[in-house]
Design a protein that fits this description.
The complex is a heterodimer of chains A (525) and B (306). Chain A is of the alpha+beta class and 525 residues long. Helix content of chain A is 31%, strand content 23%. In chain A, the strands form 5 sheets. In chain A, strands 1, 8, 9, 10, 11, 12, 13, 14, 15, 16 and 17 form an 11-stranded mixed β-sheet that branches. The radius of gyration of chain A is 24 Å and the shape is globular. In chain A, 55% of the residues are buried. Classes of the chains: A alpha+beta (525), B mainly alpha (306). Chains A and B meet through helix 6 and helix 12 of A and helix 2, helix 3, helix 5, helix 7 and helix 13 of B.
């Protein structure tokens, strides 16, 4: 098993290189690829500001997108959600599933010239795991008991128990290698002086406006194609679109659905639409009536027309939910959940003792997710058809978090809109974080106060199972049970729309919404 | 006059103390926990608690306030909870950007507003007056961010005369200054018109005209100066408003000003940034009020402060 995994890593590396060569070219076979403009600057307009460049502080997808070009971890994830080699070229896991040995890439240097080795990797992983540092990404690495540099090019990680999604956790942002001298020099200020091993090094930051990265000539993976990579924060949708049309930005994120249709007509622009793994839903507090009755929760699921929401509200930039994770997330199995059936909804409500429906409140943030408040309002309208009178209450994000994280006895929420995404690209993350009964607030994020002993057992088992083939059936059952218990009113999975100038190539849209610009290039005119 | 200015400065101390208390309480008393926002959904409750402790948010409020006040009196506004950067340099940097835009917008507003107001008053009842009144009503009613987007569409995208967004060379000031300035110009033109009209009807104006002074000289020497007080008041109010950071305009034109910074800080409950920002704006407005009072005295010699 050990040897085959090590080989698996190497083969994956070779395959990835081949895939990259073809993907980066992105031209029909037989046609010569346009020459690369090595003097080009690529400006990317994101919706929100990037407040910190410390990979151990989460701060959202836009920050992850920027850090992707600066930092690398042992492994990374590609746009199909597969883990592939990065600073580790191969790895193996012991028979008991607790000891992971990573063989590190040689000849890698940090952007400050420091050589990368096992001790440097250990330093970064020790930092993010240190409880005293109180770094928000610690949660992703608590399973690691010890990290040891066996020699300069071998790192050994021992976990407290076998941990299935180990590689996916290491592939996520928090597992990045940070230059040890830079950490010693800057301490907490590493957030504004990032030094990693990635293809672009940090140049400057104008707070609230832009972050400029420049080509790192010492990159192990060959000469990066762009001279400069600039990330700007442009919150107004119309402004981002104007920047793309006037070529002030060459890539814009979160193109509004209606604009996407219009921009497609412009030959100078390309609109890339990709499935994401963020799942919009309305959580239901199952600890209090009437939502403590499973029939009521199922009735609400029957009362909502998911297809209608995707078509009418998102203009097709989404897919109706078929589970609590999106199809692109590892472990997903479609549950063919609750067809739209108002009659059935009314019948279930009557059975549960609510023939005339009931009054409730749907809490929602505004501007946190695409069309979040609008979604709550649309659901309000659909629930009314089944006799459920919902009031939509908009609340600002900080207050929302406090409201949701109140313990069960103080928690007065009934229904609330959220959109979880499996940032590690696999189903274990959302299962553990949201559906395990050990995660009731204030400990964790099971804000529905959902408890099913079988689900708890399966989630624990899934975490301890390393072999993906054995892991899958466990999560298939978790999905069946959760969908049947219906602690969520399932809605839809978002798609992402990215607008680019047509001469921009080679970037990858990752399943967790971040964009990987490491291999991006602009065609020479 | 000197005594007046000194006295006004002395009253600043209790006012600033009050402002600091309000700034502190406002952001601390609304619900929302910075540690939860920074950690984000998915973080463990224990880690959030540890972060809260590390950020010093568990200390009693009076203690936090005293600590902040002590540091503020030494011109240290602390560090942002999220970015861990010093607050004061960032606030001053953003304030500088806001100030530049406000001055540019004020120049537009004064040039257009005064001209339009005087012309409307002198040509009272004519087509000119009507057209300028329409302009003023439109200027006050049209939302600034919408006007900004329209300008961007016309002048940046269709005509390509100026960049759509950002803050760099003088050309980047044109669109945001126009969008902000037109709104202020509309108000100033209305006040100018009514103020000039009132003075035009005075006896001494008729006398001045009767003794053979040219209409232009009467307008400049006798009318405009006498009608200055209400115009200065409105212009100063508008300027104060612009200095608070025009959030929507800054958002549309991606202008790195104080308004956007504060809105983001409030959303994230970044206490030190919000407190420092409110304090900075308050100090600016107080100084601006003082300057306005002094300008009254310059404009109207009858005004004397005892």
């Amino acid at each position: 098993m050990t040897a085959s995994r090590a080989w698996g890593g190497r083969i994956a590396g070779v395959v990835w290189t081949v895939v990259c060569v073809f993907a980066t070219a992105a031209v029909p076979i037989g046609a010569a690829p346009p020459p690369v403009d090595y003097n080009a600057t690529l400006t990317v307009a994101q919706g929100v500001d990037v407040p910190t460049l410390d990979p151990a502080v989460s701060a959202g997808t836009p920050a992850v997108t920027v850090r992707h070009s600066i930092y690398e971890g042992l492994v990374s994830m590609n746009d199909r959600g597969e883990v592939e080699p990065a600073l580790a070229t191969s790895w193996s896991v012991s028979a008991d599933g607790r000891t992971w040995t990573f063989h590190l890439r040689g000849g890698v240097r940090f952007q400050d010239g420091t050589p990368f080795d096992a001790a440097a990797m250990k330093r970064s992983l020790d930092r993010v795991r240190d409880p005293k540092e109180a770094l928000p990404m610690r949660n992703y690495f608590v399973m690691i008991q010890t990290a040891d540099a066996v020699d300069a090019s071998t790192l050994r990680l021992v976990t407290d128990a076998p941990f299935g999604p180990m590689l996916q956790h290491l592939a996520y942002d928090g597992g990045a290698a940070i230059s040890p001298p830079a950490l010693a020099k800057y301490g907490k200020d590493i957030a504004s002086h990032p030094v990693g091993t990635g293809p672009y090094r940090f140049d400057s930051q104008v707070p609230g406006q832009s972050i400029t990265l420049v080509r790192f000539d010492g990159y192990w993976g060959g000469r990066p194609a762009l001279a400069k990579l600039v990330f700007t924060a442009v919150s107004e949708d119309a402004t981002r679109v104007a920047q793309l049309e006037s070529n002030q930005a060459q890539v814009i994120l979160n193109v509004p659905p209606r604009e996407a249709l219009r921009l497609k007509q412009n030959p100078a622009l390309t609109i890339v639409i990709k499935d994401g793994n963020r799942v919009a839903h309305i959580g239901m507090n199952v600890s209090k009536p009437p939502l403590s009755d499973k029939r009521v929760r199922q009735a609400l699921n029957y009362a909502v027309n998911r297809r209608g929401l995707v078509g009418g509200l998102l203009d097709g930039l989404g897919t109706p939910s078929e589970s609590f994770v999106a199809p692109i997330t590892w472990g997903y199995v479609s549950q063919h959940l609750y067809p739209y059936d108002v009659k059935k909804a009314k019948q279930l409500l009557a059975e549960a003792g609510f023939p005339n429906g009931f009054d409730t409140t749907i809490w929602t943030p505004q501007g946190r997710y695409p069309l979040d408040k609008e979604t709550a309002v649309a659901v309000q309208g659909q629930l009314a058809q089944a006799g459920v009178r919902a009031r939509v209450q908009v609340i600002d994000w900080a207050q929302y978090l406090t409201l949701l994280r109140r313990p069960a006895d103080q928690n007065t929420t009934q229904m609330y809109l959220l959109a979880w995404e499996s940032v590690t690209g696999e189903i274990g993350y959302v299962s553990r974080t949201v559906f395990a009964s050990s995660q009731w607030p204030p400990t964790g994020w099971n804000t529905m106060f959902y408890r099913n002993p079988r689900v708890d057992e399966l989630i624990a088992q899934g975490d301890r199972t390393v072999d993906p083939r054995t892991r899958q059936p466990i999560y298939t059952e978790v999905q069946q049970l959760v969908v049947d218990d219906a602690p969520w009113l399932f809605l839809f999975n978002y798609k992402q729309a990215i607008g680019t100038r047509s001469d921009v190539h080679g970037f990858a849209v990752l399943p967790y919404e971040a964009i990987d610009f490491r291999k991006a290039w602009i065609a020479a005119k | 006059m000197t005594r007046f200015v000194v006295r006004r400065f002395a009253t600043l101390v209790p006012v600033l103390f009050g402002v600091s208390l309000v700034a502190f309480l406002l952001i601390h008393l609304i619900p929302g926990d910075p540690a939860e926002v920074i950690a984000g959904p998915g973080a463990a409750g224990a880690d959030i608690a540890q972060l809260r402790q590390q950020l010093g948010l568990n200390a009693p409020l009076p203690l936090q306030y005293a600590d902040w006040l002590a540091r503020t009196s030494h011109a240290d506004l602390g560090r942002s909870l999220l970015t861990r950067q010093a607050v004061l340099p960032e606030l001053l940097d953003r304030f500088g950007n806001t100030l530049r835009l406000a001055v540019a917008a004020m120049l537009v507003a004064l040039a257009l507003g005064l001209t339009a107001g005087v012309v409307a008053a002198v040509r009272r009842g004519t087509v000119w007056d009507l057209a300028l009144s329409l302009f003023a009503i439109a200027g006050v009613s049209v939302p600034i961010f919408w006007l900004g987007l329209l300008f961007m569409l016309w002048f940046a995208l269709n005509l390509g005369w100026v960049p759509a967004t950002g803050m760099a060379g003088p050309e980047t000031y044109v669109l945001p200054a126009l969008a902000l300035g037109l709104n202020a110009a509309a108000l100033i033109s209305r006040i100018t018109r009514s103020s000039v009209l009132e003075i035009l009807g005075r006896d001494y104006v008729r006398t001045a005209l009767a003794k053979g002074l040219s209409a232009r000289r009467v307008l400049w020497r006798h009318v405009l100066r006498s009608s200055a007080v209400p115009i200065v008041t409105v212009a100063a109010l508008q300027f104060g408003y612009l200095l608070g950071g025009a959030v929507l305009t800054e958002t549309v034109f991606v202008w790195p000003g104080l308004g956007r910074l504060l809105v983001e800080a409030i959303q994230r409950r970044d206490f030190p940034v919000v407190q420092g920002g409110i304090l900075l704006i308050a100090v600016t407005l107080i100084l601006l009020n003082l300057a306005t009072d002094i300008l009254y005295a310059v404009a109207d010699p009858r005004i004397r402060y005892q």
